[in-house]
Amino acid sequence: MSKRFPLTAEQIALSEERKAKKQKLQAQAQASAPSPNNAEERILNRPWIDLHAAHGDEIRVKLFTWNLLAQCLGANYSRQAEMSSKEPQRQPMLHAEILAQDADIMCLQEVDSLDKLLPALEAAEYNHHYVSGPGKKHGCLVAFKKTYEKLEERVIHYDEQHVRSEGEETTRRGSSFRTKNIGSLVALKSLTKEGEGVVIGTTHLFWHPKYTYERTRQAGILIREIAKFRSDLQLPNWPCMIAGDFNFAPDDPGHVSIDPTVPPTVKSAPAEDEAGAVDPDRVITNARRAVPEDGLLSDSELASLFSVANVVRSAYDEGLRQHKQTSSTGFQTFGDRMSLPRTKKGFHEPEYTSYTHYWKTVLDYIFILTDRPVAVGGLLSLPLVKDLIPGLPQKGFCGSDHISLCAEMILSHKSGTIENAER
């Protein structure tokens, strides 16, 4: 039997320190983890929509996205909903909804209060990656189950990105306004499927309704950069999935431009029902009209930003279209509400993903970029409009002013096929 030497005082102290740290983390996790019997954590029950039967040889990835309404912003919404500024009421509901779908990967925007959120994620066996724009008090977080490992990461600072290779610095950027918005890219390697993984992008694009050009520029840069990120890592078979708050509706030039087969168009000012009144608590400072020296992109130059990727698909547009064909229960989509042609891309996006006093529209999406066959295996259903009145957030219903989205994507193996899958 080997002789065990006594621990030194330094080793004992280090062991005690590690033990105390572990106990503190466990206590924080228990305090933050949602309990199904706690009335404060009650949220709307939203049924899951199954669209594709499971097969053993397929790879399934469940992706959740949600704008949490940062507490540092929620305090400004007191005229909209009293509970927006009450963190003790919102936090249990937020944590309950984040964990309810047991997603493999989560993309969260307007994330603050990390001291409360991270213990809840850790208790649920998630790792995370968090970034924020310069000087911002909230940011974007990608959480992923421990069946994945972070391979690489990259931050996109939209204000600093070039959209031209020639000219002065301002012309090369082609930006209409400095927004401090960012995109976050993470390559996640599967620890259960050899050689498999997924490239995740999440973002929160600039919010103001009048800045359509800047949002379209940012969306184009995001598409370009996630394709470049995957190429730089030499992972052509890994699908790219982008989820977040894009702050544009399906009939907006930013959304239309995501499909490079559709030329961008100029959209008139949004209708009152779609945009609502501009929130007086959210004011732009240091704004000015664009001048020729800013080098803003033409329509064709904007379109070229998106052309680096094949057609970008929307999980909800495809999934709700399929569900509408087979469902006996009627439900409204964005296209129904706006009387769009049924063949138009974006028709089957949710009727609303944000419903407040100041705006009622669709802002959030889950997009897929891949050459591999992919089917949408299931979706989280949407609440009825009658339940959204008078607006979000609502106690016992939803802790944010946005509606969470969740979709399960089914990927073939690199050489396989999936019935009813699209490319």
From TrEMBL:
Instruction: List keywords of the entry alphabetically.
Output: Exonuclease, Hydrolase, Nuclease
Quote the Gene3D superfamilies the UniProt record gives.
Endonuclease/exonuclease/phosphatase
Keyword Nuclease listed: yes
Spans through the membrane: none
Provide any one GO MF term from the record: 3'-5'-RNA exonuclease activity
Annotated region Disordered: the residues are 16-39
Q: Has UniProt tagged this entry with the keyword Ribonucleoprotein?
A: no
Among InterPro entries, the record links this protein to: CCR4/nocturin_mRNA_transcr (IPR050410), Endo/exonu/phosph_ase_sf (IPR036691), Endo/exonuclease/phosphatase (IPR005135)
Q: Which GO annotations describe the biological process of this protein?
A: nucleobase-containing compound metabolic process
All residue ranges annotated as the Endonuclease/exonuclease/phosphatase domain in the record: 65-402
Give the similarity note.
Answer: Belongs to the CCR4/nocturin family.
Protein name as it appears in the record: Endo/exonuclease/phosphatase domain-containing protein
Organism equals Mycena venus
Lineage summary? Eukaryota, Fungi, Dikarya, Basidiomycota, Agaricomycotina
